[in-house]
Amino acid sequence: YSKLYDFDTIDGGGPSGSLISDGTYLYGMAYSSNMVFKIKLDGTGFTKILDLMTLQPYGALPHGSLLFDGTFLYGLTAIGGQYGYGTFFRVMPDGTGDTVLYSFTSQAKKPYGTLVSDGTYFYGSTSDGSNYTGKIFKIKPDGSAFQIIYNTFGGKSAIAPEGTMIIDGGYLYGMMPSGPQNVFKIKTDGTGYTTLIDFYASAAVSEYPGEFLYSDGTYLYGTLANIKDPLYEGSVFKIKMDGTNFSHLLKFENRTISGPLGALTYDSTFFYGMRQSGGVKNAGTIFKIQPDGSGYSDIFDFDGINGGFPTGALLYDSTFLYGMTPYGGI
Q: Which residues contact residue 255 at a Cβ distance below 8 angstroms, ignoring those fewer than 6 apart?
């Protein structure tokens, strides 16, 4: 374990989402300081490449992770833009070419999560900020052809997905982390919305699913922060992509304090994930588990000084796992 960098009052801090890499640098965003940054894999060369408040019109409160197409980094902010409802922006890795490509309107506002791409369109979601409502949208990388493809989240349907959707075979898959909660799929043209599992209705599951899914082409894997069992707190689960064969791979005992909330990362043998609390110092842990539920172990305990209360997903480069914590450090 190595702590590569301590955020401070000069660079702002408050990292959010997950890291991405181009093989030389790691790229990320910080929610509280409204910045896009990069840092080398060895922890040197930290650079703020974009202050989102300098965008014209400005953006603020970035959510989720960046998306890199080989030329530009793309991201979302929850507020700012021409109408104050958030932005879709891009910037080059050297900090040049920063542009607001689209300003969200009252029609679909406050984008959350990370964009996913099918090679032609980017797909994402908005929270809309009230009454458990939200929308799924698509937009071209140049900011054109914005379209709401699903706009009936709310009430008994579900709140908008706040995490990262995944795309597979013409479908988007996601989870609802609050409000009426479920795993859903929807075609990229906006048709065929299907609830794969209703966590409220299921006898095996309770509320608070995580915000991300992983797919191996047959199963979806995810995390739950709470389940309907007084002896356990959260789980790692899997479910077939048609909504059948739901099962818990592992239930976390209450003594661990917190179930997992973030995403799972796969190295072809183990899934790796994080819990925001629990562990020796109750500051979170990194764990691993095999897809059949065997081989579980906590491989690292955060103690505050080395980081605390991790969020998002780990990034794997075939040797190391990289991650961020919004608290802790010097």
A: none
